[in-house]
Design a protein that fits this description.
Rossmann fold, 195 residues, 7 helices, 31% helix, alpha/beta
Amino acid sequence: MPTLFATVGTTEFPPLMSFLTSTSFIDQLVANKVTKLTIQYGRSTDPLTALTALSDFKLGPSTPPFTSTLTHKTLTLTSFPLAPSLLPSFAAHTHTISHAGAGTILDCAPTNTRLMIIPNETLMNNHQVELAAVLPVPIHTARLGDEDLSTKIDDFLGAEKEVGGETGGGNMDVFLKIVEGEIEKGPKPAMCFVL
């Protein structure tokens, strides 16, 4: 049975959080026989709190690192804010939906999880869309406004990871050049002297 991990890394992505906790998306997961949805919500507020008011969702016991645990029909939903590493979460799930953050994608690439990226188009001059276009790893891509997003999700959940799957069409050299350029644009670290 498929399981799904969703992550925004260390940032916020409220539109993705709203999408992941919409009842239509959750019902789509149930229809695709997904048994577990784990949401890493970064610096946002816990997106599962809004679902606790709905009668179809049952609040369950939460054990660290999870801040919320709910059940809905055959689906268990859990959430947590940040973690030292997301590798255990990638390894524990068959599928991952992520923002198009370079670090998250590179961490996920060598695992057995199937990856779909949904770029956060509001960050740093839309750099996540630029990265998604040149990704050299097997991925599915979508945008929250896509008319066929539901179909893309069904296709993604029905797929098993395969070597040489769908890619952004790029190569590693171009990908690394874009990442290096973004790092150079960012804030410079403060100097630190140890005596």
